[in-house]
Amino acid sequence: MNGALPSAQRAAWCFVAPALLAIGVFFFLPVAAALVMSLTDFDIYALADLRNLRFVGLRNYAELLQTPLFWRALGNTFYFVIVGVPLSIAASLGAALLLDARVTWLKGLFRTAYFAPVVTSLVAVAVIWRYILHTRYGMLNYALSWFGIDPLDWLGDPHWSMPAIILFAVWKNFGYNMIILLAGLQSIPRDLYEAADIDGAGGWAQFRFVTWPMLGPTLLMVSILSMSGYFQLFAEPYVMTQGGPVQSTVSVLYFMYEQGFKWWNLGVASAVAFVLFAIMFAITLLQLRVARGIDA
Amino acid sequence: MKKIVLNLLLVLAGLLAVFPLVWMVAVSLMQPGEASAFPPPLLPALASLDNYRALFAAAGIGRYVVNSLLLSTAATVLSLLFNVTAGYAFAKLRFAGRERIFRTLLGALVIPAQVAMLPLFLLLKQLHLVNTYAAVLVPALASVFGIFLVRQYALTIPDALLEAARMDGAGEWRIFRSIVLPLLTPILVTLAIFTFLGTWNDFMWPLIVLTDQELYTLPVALASLSREHVQDSELMMAGAVLTIVPVLLLFLGLQRYYIQGLLVGSVKG
């Protein structure tokens, strides 16, 4: 590495410097600043005049733990992640298996159809889903009425608002993991299935003993990526419910946004961001640990 | 039998996936109030473009379409400028600390972007950039994902090719322009479509840094309109069509490149 000529080194630095500078100034620097800010009482007065800024240690974090709405937001976000991620991966896996099956037709067309919601703007499809979920005129309640189910107030009833948002998120996102899982399925050597066939293994046994273990690493990766995506829930409640009804869809990021950019409590909001980061980090490590445990 | 069931499931799932999008187009062509009926109508009784006319004339949505187009294009160009040279250098050029810097960048992927948003807002405020196009573009300049994407692809360029050019006395910049860039074309398309779609669809950051309605991007404008026009489903559907269809068409045209990027990007884990 250091054997390179000084002139070659200089050229190389010219190639990387602009990008490193941009990432340094507009990402690493703000992240470090956020950590410092989370230890101050940065609020609207400090925004007007920095002399009003005081260092408060861990007070923001301590106060967060005593804020009922923060706990509510945390609970709602966990609800969204714990129910939404497995559902989303199950839908992705189901779709990938269908596209990988030997007997299905028009795979390219359906792959595109399944993937289409992924590239749409979240705000725009949230607008569509608000009407699909409409209590009186919504398509979903109409479809449910065929099965004799009474209309549900999807976005107006605190018990149904989060399930509605989960349903929407699964629809929007399942195509993404489907592509990754499909690539994983296609990389499983066909002779493994042929060997299983010869051993007389049926469809389910083949899935259980060939597909599932061979797909393990891909599933782990998909679940880590999805978790970190789902923890960042924001636009869905912002557009569909504004955090309501009765705060049943306030997510951690929604809480952070309101604290930071509505009330200008930037110190508190930074603390919220770091709590979210810490949780996501811990859960990723936990998933890796568990996965290693299964392997061993 | 199994064949029929699987194909039926395939079709059913496909219908569920595209129904909201197709229905969106149908409702956008209906008369005001027509969609507020039970059972919900599937097709307009009399298709008309009135909602689109109203969006352009009364809500001035043309302005937001232009904003979104401008910003997404600018972000794409900037991202190509910054990420491609860096990704190539991390793959093929030697400099002190290369591996360590690259690992640090990858490590940074675990930090959610929102952590940086609050101080970044303050920084831009200091620079008097809040409420400008520049503020929207700043996070798009360089990205770890973009650098990683280009690097993985550039690794496949044979070293012998570059060495031969160096023997012939070509400078690094010349080699990059005339040998490397043409070889990287497919991944450039991938990076371009990712950046364009990402910027077009981005919501939280433009929502934060743009306060002046004149500068709103389509998603921000649509979110604000939909809060005002809760009852006008036909009008809002037309707005959704304008926001979704351009990028959906772009994706359909360049699907192959997009999927490739998605798969490379996911390997990083």
Please count the beta strands of chain A (DSSP E, at least 2 residues each): 0
Helix and strand content put the structural class of chain A at: mainly alpha
Taken in chain order, the helices and strands of chain A follow as HHHHHHHHHHHHH
CATH class of chain A: Mainly Alpha
- Say which CATH homologous superfamily of the largest domain in chain B is assigned: MetI-like
Number of helical runs of chain A? Answer: 13
Structural class assignment of chain B: mainly alpha
- The count of DSSP E runs of length 2 or more, i.e. the number of strands of chain B, is 0
Rg over alpha carbons of chain A: 24 Å
Largest interface: A-B, 97 and 97 residues
Mean pLDDT of chain A: 92
CATH architecture of the largest domain in chain B: Orthogonal Bundle
Gyration radius of chain B (Cα, Å) is 23 Å
Q: Determine the mean pLDDT of chain B.
A: 92
CATH topology of the largest domain in chain B: MetI-like fold
How would you describe what is shown here?
The complex is a heterodimer of chains A (296) and B (269). Chain A has 13 helices and no strands. By secondary structure, chain A is mainly alpha-helical. Chain A has a single domain (59-295), classed as MetI-like (MetI-like fold), CATH 1.10.3720. In chain A, α4 packs parallel to α8 (161-186), α4 (68-100) crosses α12 and α10 (203-231) packs antiparallel against α13 (266-295). The relative contact order of chain A is 0.12. The model of chain A has no long low-confidence stretch (mean pLDDT 92). Chain B is mainly α and 269 residues long. Chain B has two domains: 1-48, no CATH class; 59-267, MetI-like fold. Chain B has helices at 2-28, 50-57, 61-92, 98-107, 114-126, 133-137, 144-154, 159-167, 172-201, 204-209, 218-228, 233-253, 255-267. The two termini of chain B are 39 Å apart. At the A-B interface, α1, α4, α5, α6 and α8 of A face α1, α3, α4, α5 and α9 of B.
